Amino acid sequence: MRFIRGSNDCEFFSYKHYQIGILISLLSLSVIDVVKGSIHEYKNEGFIPRFNSFFVHGGSEGMYASKVHNNGSTKDKPINGKSFVRFESIIFRRPKEVAAKQNEMQQSTGLVEAILVEVKNRDKIGGSYLNSNAICCTPELANDGSCKVGEVIIRQDPDNPGWPKRIQTPFEGKKEEAKMLLQTVEINRTGMYYLYFMLCDPQLKGTTMSGRTVWRNPNGYLPGKMTPLMPFFGFMSLTYLILGLLWFLRFVQHWKDIIQLHYHITMVIGLGMCEMALWYFEYANFNATGSRPIGITLWAVTFSAFKKTFSRLLLLVVSMGFGVVRPTLGGVTLKVLLLGLIYFVASEALELVENLGNINDFSGKARVFLVLPVALLDSCFILWIFSSLSKTLEKLQTRRNMGKLELYRKFTNALAVSVLVSVAWIGYELYFNASDPLSELWQRAWIIQAFWAVLAYVLLVVICILWAPSRNPTRYSYSEVEDIEEDGISLTGSGVKVSGDLIERKPAVITDHVFEVLEEDKRE
């Protein structure tokens, strides 16, 4: 699981009044060192001061409501159908000098609170309704009985009693450690939830915490944003399988007329099938265990990066007319391979950070530096592809090969439409992220990722249709005769006329000139 912080966390509370300032700072400073799927681990996390409180950001996830409740019907499988957040092995440690100053006989000498709140109830945390900038209750605010000194100010949601959820763990006497009891908080309403561990006592400055929390949805440990992606990857695996079978049947039927380009298309179909299958099994394992298996994830990431690279190279060489208007790429082969290698490395690095990297403020900035090279390389591919298409179309018009010209016009139109749709979708994605800084629309977020997979598949289907194996491969395969015609080699004198793909011999016309010379001699 990867925490979504940065811009999302920077606006957790309401946009009204002081609430922006409070939780902009809270969430922008949140740091989780190690994250394993829906098992959020904390290792000696320090509490960060903000206003009159100290906090550690415990995580945020989209959660679906439990399908069953504690009614004894799930005795054999107590977690089946339930949605919950479970606190495991949580230990708070305060500095020795702070513990030494406490009264040995006093039962509570410090308090840590775990606050679990649904994002729509963000305005119920803090003293905004009391016209105060405080997060923790002060003696002045406690005078009217609205809160207790030393505790976080919380107003209960009348539509959901007991929420936002507060779990308290006290320090006892002079003990340096306070252990949080094993607790499970059941989620009874679908929403985006944020977890914070908070201190209100300034004497507890320097306190750290360790342990973990386990977040589970009714059908497994997949975070809410990622839950729809598992069946989606399963569906895409099936579509690639169907495309592969249809292509294989066509391939076998016309195996004598196969050209080099068909092998490249076959490889892209195979890579896409493996990529979707690996992502499906990776998500299935994640859903069952709560952790992302590094082995499967690494393979999925590598296949994804390689398939993206090879797909772009396929589009580029097709646009250059490889196997159609030119037998080889010639001198640009090295440049094409170099661009592909650089793109693979950049794409692999980005995928690794997104799927295996620890998510904190630094890695968020690091991700920006990894996105920029990939975006720049994509732009290079697009410019080079359309530039090559323009030259290929011009060459086909010169040769007057209407069959191939029509083929490439269709391909150009399909590619142009895909680029326009991509630009429009990028605009929508930017709007979506800007208008939903707190991930309140998390149930629709999976569509952003799914769109690109569908677009790549559709474009591959178009290429398969246009360049499908057939009994007449000359309609799109390279022909040496066309090069002879393009070079302007006139074979008229030898009685050869070149037209399209046909070569026709005609009687020599040199005799006409001989008769003209003889006529002139007679006159003289």
From TrEMBL:
UniProt-listed Pfam families: GOST_TM
Major localization listed first in the record, in broad terms: membrane
Domain GOST seven transmembrane: from-to ranges: 228-473
Keywords, in A-Z order: Membrane, Signal, Transmembrane, Transmembrane helix
Topology of this chain in the membrane: Multi-pass membrane protein
Compartments it resides in: Membrane
Segments traversing the membrane: 229-249, 261-281, 313-346, 366-386, 407-426, 446-468
Record-level GO cellular component terms: Golgi apparatus; membrane
Family annotation (PANTHER family): LUNG SEVEN TRANSMEMBRANE RECEPTOR, TRANSMEMBRANE PROTEIN 87B-LIKE ISOFORM X1
Name this polypeptide is given: GOST seven transmembrane domain-containing protein
Biological source species: Lactuca saligna
